Amino acid sequence: MSEVRAQYEAYPYPARDPAEEKTRLITGSPSHVLEVDHFVFGGARDWSKPLRVLVAGGGTGDALIQLAQQMQDAGRVAEITYLDLSTASRAIAEERARVRGLSGIRFVTGSLLDAADHGMFDYIDCCGVLHHLPDPATGFRALLAALAPGGGMGFMVYAPYGRSGVYPLQEAFGALLDGMASEARLKAARKIVAGLPEGHPFRANINLGDHKDSDAGFYDLLLHSQDRAFDVTALNDMLEATGWHLSGFTLPVLYDLARITDVPDRLGPVERMALAEKLGGTIKTHVGYAVRGSEARGPATGRNRALVPHLKGLRAADLARAVGQGQSPKLSFGSVTARLSLPKEAARLIAAIDGRRSLQEIAQATGTDPISMGALWSRVERELSGHGLLVYSSILRR
Protein backbone atom coordinates (compact mmCIF):
# COMPACT_ATOMS: atom_id res chain seq x y z
CA MET A 1 0.00 0.00 0.00
CA SER A 2 2.99 2.33 0.36
CA GLU A 3 3.25 2.74 -3.41
CA VAL A 4 -0.44 3.57 -3.67
CA ARG A 5 -0.14 6.11 -0.87
CA ALA A 6 2.88 7.71 -2.57
CA GLN A 7 0.90 8.06 -5.80
CA TYR A 8 -1.93 9.95 -4.16
CA GLU A 9 0.46 12.15 -2.20
CA ALA A 10 2.06 13.17 -5.50
CA TYR A 11 -1.16 13.26 -7.54
CA PRO A 12 -4.29 13.70 -5.38
CA TYR A 13 -7.25 12.30 -7.26
CA PRO A 14 -9.51 13.48 -8.69
CA ALA A 15 -7.86 16.84 -9.36
CA ARG A 16 -9.95 19.50 -7.62
CA ASP A 17 -9.60 23.25 -6.96
CA PRO A 18 -11.27 24.18 -3.63
CA ALA A 19 -11.94 27.70 -4.95
CA GLU A 20 -14.47 26.22 -7.38
CA GLU A 21 -16.71 25.27 -4.44
CA LYS A 22 -17.89 28.89 -4.52
CA THR A 23 -19.50 28.36 -7.92
CA ARG A 24 -20.46 24.69 -8.31
CA LEU A 25 -21.38 21.53 -6.44
CA ILE A 26 -20.12 18.33 -8.03
CA THR A 27 -22.86 15.71 -7.82
CA GLY A 28 -23.05 12.14 -8.99
CA SER A 29 -23.35 8.52 -8.02
CA PRO A 30 -22.98 6.88 -5.61
CA SER A 31 -23.84 8.92 -2.50
CA HIS A 32 -26.40 11.33 -3.88
CA VAL A 33 -28.55 11.55 -0.77
CA LEU A 34 -31.78 10.70 -2.62
CA GLU A 35 -30.17 7.57 -4.04
CA VAL A 36 -28.95 6.55 -0.61
CA ASP A 37 -32.50 6.57 0.74
CA HIS A 38 -33.82 4.80 -2.38
CA PHE A 39 -31.30 1.95 -2.53
CA VAL A 40 -30.37 1.50 1.12
CA PHE A 41 -33.40 2.50 3.18
CA GLY A 42 -36.29 1.62 0.88
CA GLY A 43 -37.16 5.28 0.36
CA ALA A 44 -38.51 5.50 3.91
CA ARG A 45 -35.64 6.44 6.23
CA ASP A 46 -36.50 8.31 9.42
CA TRP A 47 -34.61 11.52 8.68
CA SER A 48 -35.27 12.94 12.13
CA LYS A 49 -32.32 10.76 13.18
CA PRO A 50 -28.75 11.80 12.31
CA LEU A 51 -27.17 9.92 9.41
CA ARG A 52 -23.85 8.41 10.45
CA VAL A 53 -21.61 8.29 7.37
CA LEU A 54 -18.18 6.87 6.61
CA VAL A 55 -16.48 8.08 3.43
CA ALA A 56 -13.90 5.32 3.04
CA GLY A 57 -11.03 6.33 0.79
CA GLY A 58 -12.46 9.82 0.42
CA GLY A 59 -9.79 11.18 -1.93
CA THR A 60 -10.15 14.87 -2.68
CA GLY A 61 -13.67 14.86 -1.31
CA ASP A 62 -16.34 14.56 -4.02
CA ALA A 63 -18.63 12.19 -2.09
CA LEU A 64 -17.93 13.93 1.20
CA ILE A 65 -18.82 17.39 -0.10
CA GLN A 66 -21.89 16.20 -2.00
CA LEU A 67 -23.38 14.35 0.96
CA ALA A 68 -22.57 17.03 3.53
CA GLN A 69 -23.97 19.81 1.37
CA GLN A 70 -27.13 17.94 0.41
CA MET A 71 -27.84 17.04 4.02
CA GLN A 72 -27.30 20.65 5.08
CA ASP A 73 -29.56 21.92 2.28
CA ALA A 74 -32.29 19.51 3.39
CA GLY A 75 -31.98 20.67 6.99
CA ARG A 76 -30.94 17.19 8.15
CA VAL A 77 -28.13 16.16 10.48
CA ALA A 78 -25.16 14.14 9.25
CA GLU A 79 -22.19 12.90 11.26
CA ILE A 80 -19.54 12.20 8.63
CA THR A 81 -16.14 10.55 9.02
CA TYR A 82 -13.71 11.05 6.13
CA LEU A 83 -10.98 8.39 5.94
CA ASP A 84 -8.04 8.30 3.52
CA LEU A 85 -4.37 7.32 3.41
CA SER A 86 -3.26 10.45 1.55
CA THR A 87 -2.60 13.60 3.55
CA ALA A 88 -2.42 15.61 0.31
CA SER A 89 -5.89 14.43 -0.72
CA ARG A 90 -7.22 15.07 2.78
CA ALA A 91 -5.91 18.65 2.72
CA ILE A 92 -7.88 19.35 -0.47
CA ALA A 93 -11.04 17.77 0.95
CA GLU A 94 -10.71 19.78 4.16
CA GLU A 95 -10.28 23.01 2.27
CA ARG A 96 -13.30 22.28 0.07
CA ALA A 97 -15.39 21.74 3.21
CA ARG A 98 -14.02 24.94 4.76
CA VAL A 99 -14.87 27.00 1.67
CA ARG A 100 -18.46 25.74 1.86
CA GLY A 101 -18.73 26.22 5.61
CA LEU A 102 -19.68 22.58 6.15
CA SER A 103 -19.63 21.15 9.66
CA GLY A 104 -20.13 17.79 11.35
CA ILE A 105 -17.13 16.25 9.55
CA ARG A 106 -14.33 14.31 11.23
CA PHE A 107 -11.17 13.97 9.13
CA VAL A 108 -9.01 10.89 9.71
CA THR A 109 -5.82 9.77 7.96
CA GLY A 110 -5.76 6.00 7.77
CA SER A 111 -6.77 2.82 5.96
CA LEU A 112 -10.30 1.64 5.26
CA LEU A 113 -9.13 -1.75 6.53
CA ASP A 114 -9.42 -0.19 9.99
CA ALA A 115 -12.89 1.27 9.35
CA ALA A 116 -14.51 -0.39 12.34
CA ASP A 117 -12.05 1.37 14.66
CA HIS A 118 -13.83 4.63 13.88
CA GLY A 119 -17.39 3.61 14.78
CA MET A 120 -20.51 2.06 13.28
CA PHE A 121 -22.11 3.74 10.31
CA ASP A 122 -25.56 3.85 8.73
CA TYR A 123 -24.08 4.55 5.33
CA ILE A 124 -20.63 3.91 3.86
CA ASP A 125 -19.32 5.48 0.66
CA CYS A 126 -16.47 3.61 -1.03
CA CYS A 127 -15.96 4.97 -4.51
CA GLY A 128 -13.00 3.94 -6.65
CA VAL A 129 -11.02 2.30 -3.84
CA LEU A 130 -11.72 -1.41 -3.41
CA HIS A 131 -10.29 -2.32 -6.82
CA HIS A 132 -6.95 -0.79 -5.75
CA LEU A 133 -6.49 -3.07 -2.73
CA PRO A 134 -4.06 -6.02 -2.90
CA ASP A 135 -6.90 -8.17 -1.55
CA PRO A 136 -10.27 -6.54 -2.30
CA ALA A 137 -12.15 -9.16 -0.26
CA THR A 138 -10.40 -7.93 2.88
CA GLY A 139 -11.66 -4.43 2.11
CA PHE A 140 -15.25 -5.53 1.55
CA ARG A 141 -15.20 -7.42 4.86
CA ALA A 142 -13.63 -4.52 6.74
CA LEU A 143 -16.37 -2.17 5.59
CA LEU A 144 -19.10 -4.65 6.50
CA ALA A 145 -17.64 -4.79 10.01
CA ALA A 146 -18.24 -1.03 10.30
CA LEU A 147 -21.84 -1.15 9.02
CA ALA A 148 -24.67 -0.59 11.48
CA PRO A 149 -27.79 -2.78 11.29
CA GLY A 150 -30.13 -1.66 8.51
CA GLY A 151 -27.41 0.30 6.73
CA GLY A 152 -25.71 -0.01 3.38
CA MET A 153 -22.85 1.00 1.11
CA GLY A 154 -22.54 2.98 -2.10
CA PHE A 155 -19.67 1.74 -4.24
CA MET A 156 -17.86 2.18 -7.53
CA VAL A 157 -15.50 -0.44 -8.89
CA TYR A 158 -13.88 -0.74 -12.29
CA ALA A 159 -15.46 -2.88 -15.01
CA PRO A 160 -13.34 -4.56 -17.71
CA TYR A 161 -15.02 -4.13 -21.09
CA GLY A 162 -15.39 -0.36 -21.14
CA ARG A 163 -11.72 -0.10 -20.09
CA SER A 164 -10.37 -2.03 -23.05
CA GLY A 165 -6.77 -1.17 -23.75
CA VAL A 166 -6.01 0.02 -20.22
CA TYR A 167 -4.56 -3.10 -18.65
CA PRO A 168 -1.95 -3.99 -21.30
CA LEU A 169 -0.64 -0.43 -21.01
CA GLN A 170 -0.58 -0.62 -17.21
CA GLU A 171 1.42 -3.84 -17.36
CA ALA A 172 3.83 -2.46 -19.95
CA PHE A 173 4.40 0.78 -18.07
CA GLY A 174 4.86 -1.13 -14.81
CA ALA A 175 7.72 -3.13 -16.32
CA LEU A 176 9.22 -0.38 -18.47
CA LEU A 177 9.13 2.53 -16.02
CA ASP A 178 9.79 0.67 -12.77
CA GLY A 179 12.01 2.57 -10.36
CA MET A 180 11.53 5.97 -11.99
CA ALA A 181 10.31 9.00 -10.06
CA SER A 182 6.61 9.88 -10.46
CA GLU A 183 7.16 12.90 -12.70
CA ALA A 184 9.57 11.01 -14.95
CA ARG A 185 7.13 8.08 -15.24
CA LEU A 186 4.33 10.44 -16.16
CA LYS A 187 6.39 12.21 -18.82
CA ALA A 188 7.59 8.98 -20.39
CA ALA A 189 4.14 7.38 -20.40
CA ARG A 190 2.52 10.46 -21.95
CA LYS A 191 5.06 10.35 -24.78
CA ILE A 192 4.34 6.69 -25.47
CA VAL A 193 0.56 7.14 -25.38
CA ALA A 194 0.80 10.06 -27.79
CA GLY A 195 2.50 7.75 -30.28
CA LEU A 196 0.12 4.79 -30.07
CA PRO A 197 -1.06 3.57 -33.48
CA GLU A 198 -4.64 4.36 -34.51
CA GLY A 199 -5.75 0.76 -34.21
CA HIS A 200 -4.56 0.41 -30.61
CA PRO A 201 -7.48 -0.65 -28.34
CA PHE A 202 -6.75 2.15 -25.88
CA ARG A 203 -6.62 4.86 -28.51
CA ALA A 204 -9.84 3.54 -30.06
CA ASN A 205 -11.69 3.43 -26.73
CA ILE A 206 -13.94 6.50 -26.65
CA ASN A 207 -15.29 5.57 -23.20
CA LEU A 208 -12.13 6.79 -21.47
CA GLY A 209 -11.22 10.40 -20.75
CA ASP A 210 -9.39 10.68 -17.41
CA HIS A 211 -6.00 10.69 -19.11
CA LYS A 212 -7.00 13.82 -21.02
CA ASP A 213 -8.29 15.76 -18.02
CA SER A 214 -5.29 16.06 -15.70
CA ASP A 215 -1.94 14.57 -14.69
CA ALA A 216 -3.72 12.94 -11.74
CA GLY A 217 -6.26 11.39 -14.09
CA PHE A 218 -3.58 10.06 -16.43
CA TYR A 219 -1.56 8.60 -13.56
CA ASP A 220 -4.59 6.99 -11.93
CA LEU A 221 -5.73 5.40 -15.19
CA LEU A 222 -2.48 4.14 -16.70
CA LEU A 223 0.27 4.20 -14.07
CA HIS A 224 -1.51 2.82 -11.02
CA SER A 225 0.45 0.12 -9.23
CA GLN A 226 -2.59 -1.84 -8.04
CA ASP A 227 -5.71 -2.09 -10.19
CA ARG A 228 -8.20 -4.79 -11.09
CA ALA A 229 -11.60 -4.83 -12.75
CA PHE A 230 -14.75 -6.81 -11.90
CA ASP A 231 -17.28 -7.99 -14.41
CA VAL A 232 -20.85 -8.39 -13.12
CA THR A 233 -20.38 -12.03 -12.19
CA ALA A 234 -17.10 -11.44 -10.35
CA LEU A 235 -18.56 -8.45 -8.51
CA ASN A 236 -21.65 -10.34 -7.39
CA ASP A 237 -19.51 -13.29 -6.31
CA MET A 238 -17.27 -10.93 -4.32
CA LEU A 239 -20.22 -9.26 -2.61
CA GLU A 240 -21.80 -12.57 -1.64
CA ALA A 241 -18.52 -14.10 -0.47
CA THR A 242 -17.84 -11.14 1.84
CA GLY A 243 -21.31 -10.89 3.36
CA TRP A 244 -22.89 -8.25 1.12
CA HIS A 245 -25.97 -8.23 -1.12
CA LEU A 246 -26.33 -6.09 -4.24
CA SER A 247 -29.29 -3.76 -3.78
CA GLY A 248 -29.00 -2.38 -7.29
CA PHE A 249 -27.01 -0.49 -9.89
CA THR A 250 -27.70 3.21 -10.35
CA LEU A 251 -28.30 2.79 -14.10
CA PRO A 252 -30.28 -0.45 -14.40
CA VAL A 253 -30.87 0.15 -18.11
CA LEU A 254 -27.23 -0.72 -18.82
CA TYR A 255 -27.76 -4.17 -17.29
CA ASP A 256 -31.18 -4.90 -18.80
CA LEU A 257 -30.72 -7.71 -21.30
CA ALA A 258 -34.37 -7.43 -22.43
CA ARG A 259 -33.61 -4.01 -23.92
CA ILE A 260 -31.00 -5.64 -26.15
CA THR A 261 -32.48 -8.99 -27.17
CA ASP A 262 -34.98 -11.70 -26.30
CA VAL A 263 -34.14 -13.33 -22.98
CA PRO A 264 -34.27 -17.12 -22.50
CA ASP A 265 -36.21 -18.16 -19.40
CA ARG A 266 -33.31 -20.31 -18.22
CA LEU A 267 -31.16 -17.28 -17.38
CA GLY A 268 -31.08 -15.98 -13.82
CA PRO A 269 -30.87 -12.29 -12.86
CA VAL A 270 -27.07 -12.17 -12.54
CA GLU A 271 -26.58 -14.10 -15.79
CA ARG A 272 -28.84 -11.61 -17.56
CA MET A 273 -26.91 -8.63 -16.26
CA ALA A 274 -23.60 -10.29 -17.13
CA LEU A 275 -24.70 -10.88 -20.73
CA ALA A 276 -26.01 -7.32 -21.03
CA GLU A 277 -22.61 -6.06 -19.86
CA LYS A 278 -20.83 -8.15 -22.49
CA LEU A 279 -23.20 -7.25 -25.32
CA GLY A 280 -23.19 -3.55 -24.43
CA GLY A 281 -19.42 -3.49 -24.06
CA THR A 282 -19.17 0.12 -22.80
CA ILE A 283 -19.51 -0.13 -19.01
CA LYS A 284 -16.23 1.08 -17.52
CA THR A 285 -17.36 1.28 -13.89
CA HIS A 286 -20.02 -0.48 -11.85
CA VAL A 287 -21.80 2.04 -9.65
CA GLY A 288 -24.33 0.76 -7.18
CA TYR A 289 -25.43 0.05 -3.63
CA ALA A 290 -25.10 -2.97 -1.36
CA VAL A 291 -26.60 -4.01 1.96
CA ARG A 292 -25.74 -6.69 4.49
CA GLY A 293 -26.41 -10.14 3.05
CA SER A 294 -28.48 -11.19 6.04
CA GLU A 295 -30.68 -8.13 5.43
CA ALA A 296 -30.97 -8.61 1.66
CA ARG A 297 -33.31 -6.18 -0.04
CA GLY A 298 -33.61 -4.23 -3.26
CA PRO A 299 -34.33 -0.58 -3.98
CA ALA A 300 -37.61 1.15 -3.19
CA THR A 301 -40.54 0.60 -5.56
CA GLY A 302 -43.87 2.29 -6.14
CA ARG A 303 -45.75 -0.71 -4.84
CA ASN A 304 -45.61 1.21 -1.57
CA ARG A 305 -47.91 4.16 -2.29
CA ALA A 306 -46.70 5.97 0.85
CA LEU A 307 -43.31 6.63 -0.77
CA VAL A 308 -42.32 10.03 -2.14
CA PRO A 309 -40.93 10.09 -5.70
CA HIS A 310 -38.19 12.46 -6.83
CA LEU A 311 -36.88 13.20 -10.30
CA LYS A 312 -33.09 13.29 -10.35
CA GLY A 313 -31.49 15.51 -12.96
CA LEU A 314 -34.77 16.54 -14.57
CA ARG A 315 -37.42 19.19 -13.94
CA ALA A 316 -40.86 17.63 -13.56
CA ALA A 317 -42.57 20.42 -15.51
CA ASP A 318 -40.20 20.05 -18.47
CA LEU A 319 -40.52 16.27 -18.64
CA ALA A 320 -44.30 16.39 -18.21
CA ARG A 321 -44.57 18.90 -21.05
CA ALA A 322 -42.49 16.73 -23.38
CA VAL A 323 -44.40 13.56 -22.51
CA GLY A 324 -47.75 15.34 -22.88
CA GLN A 325 -46.73 16.44 -26.36
CA GLY A 326 -45.87 12.88 -27.33
CA GLN A 327 -42.13 13.46 -27.43
CA SER A 328 -39.48 10.86 -26.62
CA PRO A 329 -36.66 12.76 -24.89
CA LYS A 330 -33.15 11.61 -25.75
CA LEU A 331 -30.84 10.55 -22.94
CA SER A 332 -27.06 10.06 -22.99
CA PHE A 333 -24.91 7.95 -20.66
CA GLY A 334 -21.38 8.42 -21.92
CA SER A 335 -21.31 6.74 -25.32
CA VAL A 336 -24.75 5.14 -24.81
CA THR A 337 -27.90 6.91 -25.92
CA ALA A 338 -31.55 6.03 -25.38
CA ARG A 339 -35.00 7.57 -25.63
CA LEU A 340 -37.72 7.67 -23.01
CA SER A 341 -40.98 6.11 -24.08
CA LEU A 342 -43.97 7.10 -21.96
CA PRO A 343 -47.70 7.45 -22.70
CA LYS A 344 -49.14 10.96 -22.84
CA GLU A 345 -51.46 10.10 -19.95
CA ALA A 346 -48.44 9.85 -17.66
CA ALA A 347 -47.73 13.57 -18.02
CA ARG A 348 -50.15 14.59 -15.27
CA LEU A 349 -48.52 12.22 -12.79
CA ILE A 350 -45.03 13.43 -13.66
CA ALA A 351 -46.09 17.07 -13.33
CA ALA A 352 -47.26 16.39 -9.77
CA ILE A 353 -43.86 15.11 -8.59
CA ASP A 354 -42.46 17.71 -6.20
CA GLY A 355 -40.35 15.66 -3.78
CA ARG A 356 -42.93 16.08 -1.02
CA ARG A 357 -46.10 14.37 -2.25
CA SER A 358 -46.41 10.63 -1.80
CA LEU A 359 -47.68 8.47 -4.64
CA GLN A 360 -51.04 8.25 -2.89
CA GLU A 361 -51.18 12.05 -2.68
CA ILE A 362 -50.20 12.37 -6.35
CA ALA A 363 -53.05 10.05 -7.29
CA GLN A 364 -55.48 12.13 -5.25
CA ALA A 365 -54.19 15.44 -6.59
CA THR A 366 -54.53 14.29 -10.20
CA GLY A 367 -57.83 12.45 -9.76
CA THR A 368 -56.29 9.16 -10.85
CA ASP A 369 -58.18 6.04 -9.75
CA PRO A 370 -56.20 3.16 -8.21
CA ILE A 371 -56.35 0.90 -11.28
CA SER A 372 -55.19 3.62 -13.67
CA MET A 373 -52.56 4.74 -11.19
CA GLY A 374 -51.13 1.25 -10.97
CA ALA A 375 -50.94 0.80 -14.72
CA LEU A 376 -49.53 4.24 -15.50
CA TRP A 377 -47.10 4.47 -12.63
CA SER A 378 -45.57 1.07 -13.31
CA ARG A 379 -44.61 2.33 -16.78
CA VAL A 380 -43.28 5.62 -15.40
CA GLU A 381 -41.23 3.81 -12.78
CA ARG A 382 -39.76 1.24 -15.14
CA GLU A 383 -38.71 3.83 -17.68
CA LEU A 384 -37.42 6.53 -15.36
CA SER A 385 -35.88 4.27 -12.69
CA GLY A 386 -34.15 2.28 -15.40
CA HIS A 387 -32.37 5.43 -16.49
CA GLY A 388 -31.55 6.52 -12.94
CA LEU A 389 -33.99 9.43 -13.11
CA LEU A 390 -36.57 8.36 -10.51
CA VAL A 391 -35.84 7.58 -6.86
CA TYR A 392 -37.87 7.56 -3.67
CA SER A 393 -37.02 9.49 -0.52
CA SER A 394 -38.82 11.13 2.37
CA ILE A 395 -35.96 13.51 3.18
CA LEU A 396 -37.95 16.67 2.37
CA ARG A 397 -41.11 15.68 4.25
CA ARG A 398 -41.59 17.12 7.70
- CATH-derived architecture of the largest domain: 3-Layer(aba) Sandwich
Q: How many individual β-strands?
A: 11
Terminal residue distance: 46 Å
Overall pLDDT confidence: 96
What is the CATH superfamily label of the largest domain? Vaccinia Virus protein VP39
Low-confidence stretches: none
The helix/strand series, from N terminus to C terminus, equals HHEHEHEEHEHHHHHHEHEEHEEHHHE
Oligomeric state of this protein: single chain
Shape: globular
Label the structural class.
alpha/beta
Rounded Rg:
22 Å
CATH topology of the largest domain: Rossmann fold
Count structural domains. 3
Strand order of the largest sheet: 3-2-1-4-5-7-6
Largest sheet, strands/sense/barrel: 7 strands, mixed
Strand content: 15-25%
Could you name the CATH class of the largest domain?
A: Alpha Beta
Helix content: 25-40%
Summed up, the helix count is 16
GO biological process, one term: methylation
Organism: Roseovarius tolerans
Pfam families: Methyltransf_12 (PF08242)
GO molecular function: methyltransferase activity
Characterise the protein shown here:
- GO terms for molecular function: methyltransferase activity.
- InterPro entries: Methyltransf_12, SAM-dependent_MTases_sf.
- With 398 residues, the chain is an alpha/beta fold.
- The chain has three domains: 3-158 and 230-295, Rossmann fold (3-Layer(aba) Sandwich), CATH 3.40.50.150; 162-223, no CATH class; 309-392, no CATH class.
- The chain is built from 16 helices and eleven strands.
- The protein has a seven-stranded mixed β-sheet, with helices on both faces.
- Helix 3 (62-73) packs parallel to helix 4.
- The chain starts with a helix and ends in a 6-residue tail after the last strand.
- 41% of the residues are buried.
